[in-house]
Design brief:
This protein has about 180 residues and is of the alpha+beta class. The chain is built from five helices and seven strands, in the order ααββαααβββββ. A hairpin with a 6-residue loop joins strand 3 (about 125-130) and strand 4.
Length: about 180
């Protein structure tokens, strides 16, 4: 390893951690443009976090065993693509796989049937505004912005009376409706 390689790989590791933190910060703002354009959500997997995990794994692997610069050239007759068998790429791929699998609900994926799914669960944690008053235990209407920024309106229920115009957070689902609570 040349003398200037170690600081470059350390900076790459910091960039990977920064991407992971940025993705998680943006993902906490569900329904906003931060979630849509920064976290790059694909279902529950944050693509920005997966890229950050790959970059971090690659940097750690490069600090341990620097990649062979000769293997980065075009593939030869006997055994090209040598860079794909290197430790940095392997650790990067492992890091990306762990980041992706950490957000996948394997229990629901393997055991859940089509009837067991409730798409409204994806809105849990989002903020909304009441557009039709919700009596305690009854039903009303809320509006919120979806992942693309479009204003949508859905039926909602609450355990307490919630007046029109109140800001609420979606805290769960009850049957096929969202359950909200004022904050």
């Amino acid at each position: 390893m040349r003398a200037f390689d170690a600081p470059a790989y350390a900076a790459l590791a910091v960039a990977g951690v920064a991407l992971i933190l940025l993705a998680r910060w943006a993902a906490r703002r569900r329904g906003t443009r931060w979630d849509t354009f920064v976290a790059l959500r694909s279902g529950e997997v944050l693509l920005t976090e997966v890229i950050g995990a790959f970059v971090l794994g690659y940097a750690i692997g490069a600090l341990i065993a620097p990649p062979d610069r000769a293997a980065l050239g075009p593939p030869g007759r006997f055994g090209g693509f040598g860079a794909l068998r290197s430790l940095p790429v392997a650790l990067g791929a492992i890091g990306a796989a762990i980041a992706a699998l950490a957000h996948v609900d394997l229990r629901d994926l393997l055991l859940g049937g089509r009837a067991a799914r409730n798409p409204l669960r994806s809105y849990i944690g989002w903020d909304a505004r009441v557009v039709a008053a919700i009596p305690a235990g009854g039903f009303g209407e809320i509006s919120l912005r979806d992942g693309m920024g479009n204003l949508i309106s859905v039926a909602a229920t609450a355990d307490v009376d919630v007046a029109t115009g109140a800001d609420v957070r979606i805290i769960g689902t009850r049957d096929l409706n969202v359950l909200v609570a004022p904050f």
